[in-house]
Amino acid sequence: MSAPAPSRLLRRLRKWALSTAAAGALVAGVLVAGAQTSQAAGSLPCDLYASGGTPCVAAHSTTRALYSSYNGALYQVRRASDNATKDIGVLTAGGYANAAAQDSFCSGTTCVITVIYDQSGRGNNLTQAPGGGAAGGPDNLANATAAPTTVAGHEAYGVFVAPGTGYRNDHTSGIATGDQAEGMYAVLDGTHYNGGCCFDYGNAETSNNDTGNGHMEAIYFGNIKVWGYGSGNGPWVMADLENGLFSGVNAGYNANDPSVSNRYQTAIVKGGPNQWAIRGGNAASGSLSTYYSGARPNVSGYNPMHKEGAIILGIGGDNSKGAAGTFYEGVMTSGYPSDATENAVQANITSVGYGNGSSTGPGSLTPGSRISLRATTPCCTTDYVQHDAADNNVVIAPVTSSSSATDRGDATWVVRGLANTSCLSFESANDPGRYLRHSNFKLQLNADDGTSQFAQDATFCPQTGHNGQGYSFQSVNYTDKYLRHYDYTVYLAANGGSNTWDSTTSWNDDTSWAVGSPWA
């Protein structure tokens, strides 16, 4: 990064003088743990599946225990500052995630989720996915604080899958193979999706390659229409059976598979010999609906099935990794669960109250939440993106708790999504209706004029930070360019190009941003 021009340096010195101390630590957007009580004693999802004769053979969650007796680790995080790792467990047996432990461990730096532990005791843990036939790897790991939520009033974190993120286990125990029966459910963010392939959770190939029809059986969530699709514009709960996303008996349209818009969505797929089903419902309230139940597709390879028994999350069986989504909890079973068992599981899911009172916590990349964006380049780790009230330019400059109310408000952004529901727009907290928007590749604060051009210019897709910290934000209409600070001004920049701000020097650092709690 080059030295600042004199006027920029003076402005930095002026803003620095407003504060009493530099804010050296990231305000992590993390959430303070709520009351330290356990989930009520009783039957949890895997207890219910066992009672129904279809026990869990994999159980994954970053928010809570899925067995009433479970008292182990839910997941592991790794922090960027020293690459140390920490297991995040439950508050008590059968209880909720100890989010405060993560908050403390990740304070002042960023963390990624490295392991999602299997609670079934079979060791079917999910870790960083390797490369596959569709795309190289290893895949990115999820930012540990990007999907804050609440469960029964307890703060917790989901698994935020930006395109390029993926988890896998190719060496499993007890997962269905061949034409064996199985069931699976997942609780997802019903507002976070795209049309990429493929946001899946479930059974996949052990070779990371497409090995043919019927070699997968996984939950899919998104709005791609290349294979099957449902009514409306999506997103839909469908089944990835390999070489087809099925909404019903055959690839194509199934009017009974509805578009869903629940903030928290329960998604279910189950399959056995020449029988399978898709079910779903609002994970916050209400019952399940059956979107399809019947025979296998009448195409070679799907009857009988050829399942291989790997487990994937966020990707396709061949490591297709262009999709987006958020995962909170899910299981896989041995045997074909009854509707009654699944209805009981749904009742438990709704009873814990996902998101009650807080679906968009501080630092969340969900619509409506407030955030700050901090630079991660070593020179500038106390600098935040803010707009200059004098000329509408967008800069980075120091902000602390002692900064003026105006400066703190100018460094606070409300998350929106103008042009793409799986990507982000940043509305000024101080000037509602005005957004970060690129013009001639320089970021400005402009009022939304309602045009599609403005929406595209003001929309950016989050990816794992190029330097391994936080996020990098890709322009939705210039996909080779990302938000970058250069000379303390924010631009849309490529990694090498004709503009001075396209310099390759410090590009990975300058395009990586830590998402934190709002300053105002």
**What percent of residues adopt helix (DSSP H or I)?**
10-25%
Strand order of the largest sheet: 3-2-4-5-9-18-11-12-13-14
DSSP strand (E) fraction? 25-35%
What structural class is derived from the secondary structure elements?
Answer: mainly beta
Shape summary: globular
Low-confidence stretches: 1-41, 356-362
Number of helical runs? 7
Give the tally of β-strands. 31
Biggest beta sheet summary:
10 strands, antiparallel
Q: How large is the radius of gyration? A: 23 Å
N- to C-terminal separation?
Answer: 29 Å
What is the overall pLDDT average?
A: 88
Describe the structure.
This protein has 520 residues and is mostly beta strands. 11% of the residues lie in helices and 31% in strands. It contains seven helices and 31 strands. The strands form eight sheets. A ten-stranded antiparallel sheet has the order 3-2-4-5-9-18-11-12-13-14, covered by helices on one side. Strands 1, 8, 10, 15, 16, 17 and 19 form a seven-stranded antiparallel sheet that branches. The chain has a four-stranded antiparallel sheet with strand order 24-23-20-31, with no helix packed on it. Strand 29 and strand 30 form a beta hairpin. It is globular and about 65 Å long. The chain starts with 5 loop residues before the first helix and ends with a strand. 58% of the residues are buried. The N terminus is likely disordered.
